């Protein structure tokens, strides 16, 4: 049985490594999957059923006990799947508990103010998930119930094929195979597939393979099993192949290619950006604004920001010139010294931290933190709202801004 699987997967690898025409490759792959479907071992079980059985048996002993499992409620499953996009389970666990405590059903979520939803999402990153979740909740509430078809679930804002398959298999028992990063890794290694997973051809291939291997009689159990298997057993780095139930039939292990699979073709282009955050203090108040437009951290709040083309940590006189224009302060020094400087009467400026590096998926933010103390009667900053420092905790902010607020308010024995 293991030898038959080896030769079948070798054909798949050959199909995708040679310079074959797409139609020829497709026909060969279909032929191989037919072999896999009907090839029986001496107990009468097909190879693909044995693959599923081993995963499910492993899952029974090693699967994680998570609060969103064991429920058929599509809303709870939906919330968990959105939270776990781009987020590790260890981090998402507490967020899920808090989110469900505040928004126990789709109608509560739909009625909530977006700022509150964003505040509950603060720290998870990828904030478009929260905005899409809120928008989708409104559409579900307007329809009166959560959709019960795959197409209906897929139509929800922010829901892709993977999330729709997860919801439909877990909530409704539909035979829909999930294909996430964990599944890509398990299938690529077990079948020795080196077609890049971030290409159109790769996505189509893995979707077909995942569907062929799906235990259609137990789709929810199988999907949970293969995802946990990828997360805990077939890990990205240093997988425990010695104690792997699939070791005997794993082509990547046989070829010593475990660390090389899965393959990604494209590298993410990373952009450097330079943020200078200024905490403007006027008595017990400060100034913040909501970020708008199609940029990072949309609808999150931040203090006064001056973004520059380059790092100004060693050229702060340029920063002060920009600040003069924003705050309409026309007198005083054009040079900012280390420590606190009195720029003009009643106006003090100090540098708090420089060279803060904040890494996002496609960007690296190089940030400097400053404080500007103005007179108590300063009330207006164009584009910003004046808020009491004691109310800052009510506003959703990015992790970088939270770090800044924690620093400056910690220096004044206040909480964010």
Labels describing this entry:
single chain; 416 residues; alpha+beta; five-stranded mixed beta sheet; three-stranded antiparallel beta sheet; 16 helices; 8 strands; 46% helix; 14% strand
What does this protein look like?
The chain is 46% helix and 14% strand. It has helices at residues 2-17, 22-38, 47-62, 74-84, 89-102, 106-111, 114-121, 128-143, 150-154, 161-172, 181-191, 200-213, 219-233, 251-254, 316-327, 399-411, and strands at 271-282, 285-290, 301-302, 304-308, 341-344, 347-359, 363-374, 385-388. It has a five-stranded mixed beta sheet with strand order 4-1-7-6-5, sandwiched between helices. Helix 3 packs across helix 13, helix 4 runs antiparallel to helix 10 and helix 10 packs across helix 13 (219-233). The N and C termini lie far apart (61 Å).
What order do the helices and strands come in, and which of them pair?
Elements: H1 2-17, H2 22-38, H3 47-62, H4 74-84, H5 89-102, H6 106-111, H7 114-121, H8 128-143, H9 150-154, H10 161-172, H11 181-191, H12 200-213, H13 219-233, H14 251-254, E1 271-282, E2 285-290, E3 301-302, E4 304-308, H15 316-327, E5 341-344, E6 347-359, E7 363-374, E8 385-388, H16 399-411
Helix pairs in contact: 1-2, 3-13, 4-5, 4-10, 10-13, 11-13
What structural class do the secondary elements suggest? alpha+beta
Q: Would you tell me the overall average pLDDT?
A: 85
What percent strand? 5-15%
- How would a crystallographer describe the biggest sheet? 5 strands, mixed
Helix percent band: 40-55%
Give the strand order, joined by hyphens, for the main sheet: 4-1-7-6-5
Shape: elongated
Nearest-angstrom radius of gyration? 27 Å
Q: How many individual helices?
A: 16
> How far is it from the N-terminal to the C-terminal residue, by CA?
61 Å
Could you give the count of β-strands?
8
**Unreliable stretches, pLDDT < 50, 5 or more residues?**
40-44, 332-339
**What is the ordering of alpha helices and beta strands?**
HHHHHHHHHHHHHHEEEEHEEEEH
